[in-house]
């Protein structure tokens, strides 16, 4: 499923027009992204939790040259499925 498929599904399930469903989806994505940028955790009970994970700087090797390189620290998005979502998927 891609974004347009999701917009169509939202429109079908909610009765919204595709334009309104697209606006709603974009708003949800923007709100989640803004919260994660601010370092907040987004909990959607029954669905899951979005958070930011800090990855420390580390060293690695370039596989082509065996040269040692530094992998910079990064902030990565993380999603943990909620119990309701896990239960629903397990029953299928």
Q: How would you characterize the overall build of this protein?
A:
- The strands form two sheets. The chain has a three-stranded antiparallel β-sheet.
- The longest helix is centred in the first third of the chain and has 20 residues, at 18-37.
- Helices cover 43% and strands 29% of the residues.
- A hairpin with a 6-residue loop joins strand 3 (58-61) and strand 4.
- The mean pLDDT is 95.
- The chain is α+β, with helices and mostly antiparallel strands and 92 residues long.
- It contains three helices and five strands.
- The chain has two domains: 1-39; 41-92, Irregular (HU Protein, Chain A), CATH 4.10.520.10.
Secondary structure: elements and pairs:
Blueprint lengths: L2 H12 L3 H20 L4 E3 L3 E8 L2 E4 L6 E4 L2 E8 L1 H8 L2
Antiparallel strand pairs: 1-2, 2-5, 3-4
Helix pairs in contact: 1-2
């Amino acid at each position: 499923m891609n974004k347009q498929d999701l917009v169509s599904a939202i429109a079908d399930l909610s009765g919204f027009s595709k334009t309104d469903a697209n606006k709603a989806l974009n708003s949800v994505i923007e709100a989640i992204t803004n919260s994660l940028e601010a370092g907040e955790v987004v909990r959607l009970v029954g669905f899951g939790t979005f958070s930011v994970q800090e990855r420390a700087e580390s060293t690695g090797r370039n596989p082509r040259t065996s040269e040692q390189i530094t992998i910079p620290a990064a902030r990565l998005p993380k999603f943990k499925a909620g119990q309701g979502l896990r239960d629903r998927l397990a029953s299928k």
